[in-house]
Amino acid sequence: MSIVTRGFGGRRDDPGDDVPPGQFVTQDFPVLSTGPTPSVDEAHWQLAVHTETGAAHRWSWDELMSLPAEDVTTDIHCVTHWSKLGTTWRGVSLDTLFADVETSADFVMAHSYGGYTTNVPLQDLLDGQSWVAYEFEGEPLEPVHGGPARLLVPHLYFWKSAKWLRGLVMEDDDQPGFWESNGYHAYGDPWLEQRYS
Ligand SMILES: Nc1nc2c(c(=O)[nH]1)N[C@H]1C(S)=C(S)[C@@H](COP(=O)(O)O)O[C@H]1N2
Ligand SMILES: [Mo]
Asked: Region labeled Disordered — which residues (predicted)?
C-alpha cells in the first residue's frame, strides 16, 4: 500500500500552504537526540504494547517484518522550525499492530531504547496516522535517525516520533513524556503552532 499524507501533493502550486506557520524548509536531515544513539541490533530488538489490564503484545524483528508494510510519503515538522517535505518511509501501520490490542485507554506513552518517552493520544496513532518505520528513502533507517525502527507520527511535531521505539504503553491519563515535562506542548499540532506549554 502506498500512502501520501496531508501536506504533500496537491498543494505544490502554493508554496505558502506547504509548511505550518513558523517553519522553514530544509533539504538536510538534522539529527536531534537528547542522548547517545543506543545500539539495538535486530536480533535483540523487541517491540511491546502494554495495555491498562496488564496484557502485553510483543513482536520480534522477524515478526515485525512479516507484517504488511506501507510506503508513506509525508512532510515532517520539527519544533526547532525545520520542516522536510515529501520524505518517504516504509513501515507497519499502528492500525496493523493494534488490530488485536483491546484497550479502553485514551493515551499512549511511547518508550524508546535509551529512555526517551513521549505521550500521544491513542486516536492520533490510529486511522492511518502513524507507523513503526524502519526504512527511510528506500534504505534501512540509520541508527542516528532511530534505526532499527522508530515511531512516525507526521501530523504532530517530530518530537512525538520516538526514535529506537521499544514500547507503547496505554495510559488512562495524558502523562507528559520527556520533552512534554520540559516545557513542550502536550499535543504538538504544528499547524496550530503548539510548540510549548
Ligand atoms: N528516542 C528519541 N526519540 C526522539 C528524540 C530523542 O532525543 N530520542 N528526539 C525527538 C525530536 S525533538 C525530534 S525533532 C526527532 C528528530 O529525529 P531525527 O534525529 O531523525 O531528525 O526525533 C524525536 N524522537
Ligand atoms: Mo525536535
From this structure: 1-23
